[in-house]
Every structure is written in C-alpha cells, then in structure tokens.
C-alpha cells in the first residue's frame, strides 16, 4: 500500500527531456507503474520520493514489511553502470550502503537507508577529507577472478575519444586536452593493480549511516588502480583551494598528502588527477557551465 504519490522528481524529468519518445522517455512515462510493481512485489510501503534526487535514477524512501526503513532505487536504463548492484554485493556493507534485494529485469535495487541530507560535504574540509579517505580505503578490495566489471584499461579508447571530442567541441585548452588524452592512454599500462573501485567517489557520495558513521553510495564500479578513485577526492571542493593564497602549491600538497596517507604513488595520483580535472572541465564547458569548467582546467594546469 502506498502512502504518497509516485511522481518523478523534476531534476530527473529535465535530464531526460531530450529523449521524450526514445527509450529514456518511455521509461520515464512508465516509471510510476514500475515503482508500484516493485512496491507490490517486495511488499514495501512508500513514504516519499526523494527530491531533488539524481539525474540518472529515482530514489524512493520505503518501509519493509517489518517496518524497517530502506531505499528503493530505479536506474534509467543505459544511464548508469549495470554493475552497481554487483559492487554493493561485493562490499557487503563494508564502507558502502548494504544491498538488500535486486530485480534484474528492472534494475531495481533495495538499499539500506542512509541520511540522504547529511554527506561529508557538511563537515569542515580537513575533517571531510580524512573521513573520505578512510571510507574509500575500505572499498578497495582485490577484484575476484572472473569479475563482471569494466576495467580502466578496457575503457581507455572510449575515454580518449570522448575527451578529444569534448575538447574539440568546446575548443578548450587544446594542449591540456591532448596531454590528458595521452595520460589516459598510457596510465592503465603502467600499473598492475586490479582493485574494485567506486568509480565516482566524492564527498557527496558518502552519507551518514546508523550502523556506522559514513557509508558510500552510487558507485560506477570499475577495476583498476586506486589512484583513479583518489584523483576524484583530490578534486573535491577544489574551489576552496582556489579561493586561498598559494592555490597551486596547496593543490600539489593535497596530492602529496592524500597519496602518502593511502600509500598511493604521488606521480600517478597527480597524473590521474590532471586527466580527471581536464575531462570534467571540458564536459562542464560543453554543458554550459563555462566558469566551473575553466576553473577545473586551471586547476589541472597547476599540476
């Protein structure tokens, strides 16, 4: 039995507005029915749909038959990694939200409920970085033989093409784009690490929990070296660094501090950070967020 209307959040609707008659648009139109089907099949009571929510999934706060709170997630088909559930299952609640149930047909995930309004971004910067580093360390487990996940090496050609295409489209910082593309092509061959990574780690992806203070959510799992995950943490709240004096030196110190604390090679972390800053920067410019994108490119140039 539902206790609240099933209405997709406006942020999700807006993100799919470019494909009203395509698969994503059809999924959006059917979403209230899909949610109701999961509620009925798993005997869940809907409390409310989480807003503003994300751009690639709907998250609903629900109660299980015994009254235990949980979160029901339905991803947009083709918009998020299909292996999210597999990664959460591999972590089994260690450092990440616990996976309770899955439905292969719809991609639905029933998850341990966390405090969605309280992320690491609510903490002072130094404390947030410390807690984030401790959380991501827990997620880095060796990939099992025959794992179902993509690898950084396997994504290389696609990643390089996408970066160069975005750089051409935006005509942004050509030398930096080329440098980042070459780093992306070379980096996977320079390290034999095969860890299961979060893939989209940042402070906003770490939420307050009940059984443990902080747990990660929303992975885009990939297998490769730890420096790839850690690079996103270097970039977190980079605006705070840029607002202070000696910003370039502060950025390089952050790389060194995080690398040393998590026993990651400094040079490889710097290179992955440069790549991820440029990649994110040109995408931001292409999406119309020129100021944010140009700040990221400036940050990359300091490295």
From TrEMBL:
Keywords: Kinase, Transferase. It comes from Streptomyces kronopolitis. It comes from the Bacteria. This is Kinase. Residues 1-20 are annotated as: Disordered. It holds the Pfam family APH_6_hur. InterPro entries: Kinase-like_dom_sf (IPR011009), NH2Glyco/OHUrea_AB-resist_kin (IPR006748). GO terms for molecular function: kinase activity.
């Amino acid at each position: 039995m539902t206790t609240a209307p099933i209405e997709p959040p406006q942020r999700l609707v807006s993100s799919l507005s470019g494909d009203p008659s395509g698969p994503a648009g059809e999924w959006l139109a059917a979403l209230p029915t899909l949610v109701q089907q999961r509620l009925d099949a798993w005997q869940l009571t809907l409390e409310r749909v989480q807003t503003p929510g994300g751009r690639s999934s709907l998250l609903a706060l629900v109660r299980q038959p015994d009254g235990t709170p949980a979160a029901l997630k339905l991803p947009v088909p083709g918009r998020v990694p299909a292996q999210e559930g597999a990664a959460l299952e591999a972590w089994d609640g260690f450092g990440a939200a616990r996976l309770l149930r899955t439905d292969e047909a719809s991609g639905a995930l029933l998850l341990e409920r966390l405090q969605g309004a309280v992320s690491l971004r609510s903490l002072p910067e130094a404390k947030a970085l410390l807690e984030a580093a401790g959380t991501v360390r827990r997620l880095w487990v060796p990939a099992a033989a025959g794992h179902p996940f993509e690898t950084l090496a396997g994504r290389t050609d696609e990643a390089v093409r996408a970066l160069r295409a975005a750089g051409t489209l935006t005509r942004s910082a050509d030398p930096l784009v080329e440098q980042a593309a070459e780093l992306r092509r070379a980096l996977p061959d320079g390290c034999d690490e095969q860890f299961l990574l979060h893939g989209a780690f940042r402070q906003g992806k770490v939420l307050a929990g009940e059984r443990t203070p902080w747990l990660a959510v929303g992975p885009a799992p990939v297998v490769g070296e730890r420096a790839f995950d850690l690079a996103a943490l270097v970039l977190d709240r980079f605006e705070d660094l840029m607002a202070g004096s000696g910003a370039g030196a502060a950025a390089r110190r952050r790389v060194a501090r995080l690398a040393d604390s998590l026993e990651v090679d400094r040079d490889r972390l710097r290179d992955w950070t440069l790549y991820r800053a440029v990649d994110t920067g040109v995408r931001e410019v292409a999406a119309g967020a020129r100021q944010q994108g140009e700040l990221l490119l400036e940050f990359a140039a300091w490295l």
